[in-house]
Amino acid sequence: MFFTAITTVAITLFIVGFFIIIVFDIQGVLSSIKNQVEIAVYLKDNVTDELKTYLENEIKGWDEISQVIFVSKDQALEKFKKENEGSEILKEIQGNPLPASFELELKSPEKVEQVALRFMDKDGNFIEGVDEVIYGQNYVQKLFSITAIVGTIAFLIIVVLLLAAIVLIFNTIRLAIHARRKEIEVMKLVGATNWFVRLPFLFEGFFEGFIGSIISVVLLYFLSNYLLIRVEKAIVDTMHIKDLAILGNNNIILYIYAGLVILGGLLGIFSSGFALKRYISV
Amino acid sequence: MNMIEFKNVTKVYEDGNVALKNVNIVIKKGEFVFLVGPSGSGKSTLIKLLIREIPVTTGSIFVAGRNICNLKASRIPQLRRNIGYVFQDFKLLPNKTIFENVAFALEVIGKPAYAIKVQVPQVLKLVGLASKVNSYPHQLSAGEQQRISIARAFVNRPPILLADEPTGNLDPATSDGIMKLLSRINLIGTTVAMASHDKSIVNSMRRRVIELEEGEVIRDQKRGVYGS
Q1: What pTM was computed for the model?
Q2: Does ipTM top 0.90?
Q3: In the CATH hierarchy, which top-level class contains the domain A38-134?
């Protein structure tokens, strides 16, 4: 029964842990994408330095903005040339058709629309000096609603999995104790105190939970180091996401591991304690 | 000295079944008492009340002068250490050897290992099974298993020994052996109370007989027989 309980703990916590890691990973990817939400404000070619400076100071005064970078016409062209080095397009370009722009980074990406609207007047025209404002209107809104839905669903699934794990572990330990009810009865009738009967079972429950959760953590460690990291790299490479670091060099995964081990140990002790109640009251 | 005393004891189970009605019994130190009566007459209830396996409904029970009805839960183990209990179905643990089964009763009450090493062989010798120390229960006959059960109940030398139908699962010849053993334990000064509906045993022993019927004491006779 000892090994049955350990195996049950190991398998159930492995599934719970695996799902938690996956969810954190997805959330990590989504928030990395979110943080790259930018607003590009393209200026008309005839903008005066005065107007440019006025706009820059105005924007810098907004609370939602974390950074404003001015890209002049020349810088824009240089950047364009760099990005398209060796391409036919460069030969076609005469003069500098690229506009100057402000690149805005936001403190909270959810407010992107709100900020973008400030560049328009009441009639829906852009304010003086601004030619166009681009922030990926459609995809940003979708991204935010997807993130919210994924977060809620993932949370619900984790809760259900966790409850299933608790019920399974409790039942396994209860069965193990049920198998020894005769022993408990005899102990009680020859004058054992409750704690004399209880203590070994609590220790056993703790060890079952502890060892089982350690096994699940070891499995998760190998799985995340050899599988998830690769998946993550693939995502990063295909989607051009910068600063994605949910696994590997992130502490979150260590907290997940620690949480699983603590959960395993506590589940073992409490399951034993609750299961014993019925048999100990002789 | 009164070893066991029931004073106006009534026991009603949760399902409404009245198991004992206003029972008054006094058993003196060193006595050997048979509790007789048909199944359901209240014999087992009487024994279960004595070790506080179940609580009384009304009345009081005294063991060695102490009222055990208002005993705190934490004091119940202490009571049980002074009462040996022999079961009809032995209740030996199948995965433990004979030595371990008997030693178990001492370990449970916190006796040190050196005391256990001395006391267990002694009591096994008393029940005549010193050679079976390393056997397992299933390797023993039913009569031998009951002797082990008695050894376990008595290893702690309790002043009281309760036996609930100890010969219920045994043939007559084996039962005689068990009765001789219980008599010997009684002779050393132990108060013995034994529930039984084995007519021939009760008749051959000629000891005090308390007869119960539907929860009431209908006969209490010194040197009695099974039927009146």
Answers
A1: 0.71
A2: no
A3: alpha beta
